[in-house]
Amino acid sequence: MADIKDLETYLNEVYGPVTDWMTDFDHANPEYNENAHALWDEMRDKCPVAHTTRYGGTWLPVTHEYVSEIAYDTDRFTSRSVVVSRMKPSLAPDMPPAPIGTAPPISSDPPFHHDARRVMLPAFAPKKIAAWEGDVRALCNELLDNVEGQEVIDAAVDYAQHIPVNVIARMLGFPLEDSDLFRKFVHDVLEGVDEPVHVRQPKFDRLFDYISVQIEEHQANPREDLTSFLLNATIYDQPLSMRHVAGSIVLLLLAGIDTTWSAIGSSIWHLATTPADRERLVREPELMPTAIEEFLRAYAPVTMARLVKEDMDFHGCPMKAEDWVLLPFPAANRDPKEFADADKVIIDREENRHSAFGLGIHRCMGSNLARLELTIAVEEFLKRYPNFELSDTAGVKWSNGQIRGPRKLPVRILPNK
Amino acid sequence: MRVRVDTSKCQGHNRCYALAPELFDVDDLGTAFVLNDGVVPAGLEAKARLAEKNCPEYAIVIED
Question: What is the structure's pLDDT at A3?
Answer without folding.
Answer: 52
